[in-house]
Amino acid sequence: MWVWIRGLSSLIEAKVIYNALEKQGIDWNYVGNQLEVEGVDSFKKSFHSLLVTLQEKADSLRLVSH
Description:
Elements: H1 2-23, H2 28-65
InterPro entries: Aldolase_TIM
């Protein structure tokens, strides 16, 4: 029961903060979209780096095997 009450209290506090920020002009749709764009961009950069590293490793293994 105590955990549920603490959870409810945290939820209420989060909603109060969310609403207060919204009243200050925060556009939550913009925030969500921006986070998505930045997250995808970050993933693409990391994934590209991984692919480059794997290609370099594959190339070095080909050199050793020949």
